[in-house]
Amino acid sequence: MQDTKKLIETLAGKYGTKRESLIPIMQGIVEKESYLSKDAMIEVARTLDISAAEVYGTASFYSFLDTDTRGKYKIRVCKSIICEMKGKNEILRTIEDILKIKVGETSKGGQFTLLETNCLGWCHKGPAMLVNDEVYTELNPKRIRAILGEYIREEKI
Fold first, then answer.
1. Over the range 29-58, which residues count as b (16 or more CB within 10 Å of their CB) and which as e?
2. What's 106's DSSP letter?
């Protein structure tokens, strides 16, 4: 917690301690610690002099502000109606079959977490997904196998 407190102090120094600093501070925490722990959210509330409920409410509203631990690779599949019409469900089934996990789960060993998220802004080239910050578009099962194969080989799973 001491490291988290120091991180929050650093981020508050960079972004300020007003209400509008909440999201940049939380993004900074997620960037460094990969999720927002309860302790971190309480410390952010204390630093910004707002309620912990407001911090949690904001964090839980935005899908990229994880409030649970996630795998090393966070796979976020776009769940917009356009991506759904272009085959999102087939993409999800392919990922689930390869990684042996369902949406919301993390693989054994903590390498992959599979999530659905609202529009990624790439629906014109859907179906789309993110693996951490890397965008993949125009997906099909063959392409998914190739993409995930690269990550799996990299990890030697």
1. bbeeeeebeeebbebbbebbebeeeebbeb
2. B
DSSP alpha helix (H) spans, the chain:
2-15, 22-33, 38-48, 52-61, 81-85, 88-99, 141-155
Single-letter amino acid, residue 20:
E
Q: Structural domains in the chain?
A: 2-61 (no CATH), 73-155 (3.40.30.10)
Rounded to two decimals, the pTM is 0.79
User: Which residue from 104, 48, 49, 53 is spatially nearest to 76, judged by alpha carbons?
Assistant: 104
> Left (φ > 0), alpha (ψ -120 to 50) or beta: where does 37 sit?
beta
Look at the chain and count its residues: 157
Residue 28: Cβ within 10 Å count? 18
The secondary structure of residue 77, as a DSSP letter, is E
- Residue 34: what pLDDT? 84
Q: Note whether 95 and 144 are within 8 A (CB).
A: yes
Both structure tokens of 90: 């087939």
Q: Indicate if the pLDDT at residue 156 is higher than 60.
A: no
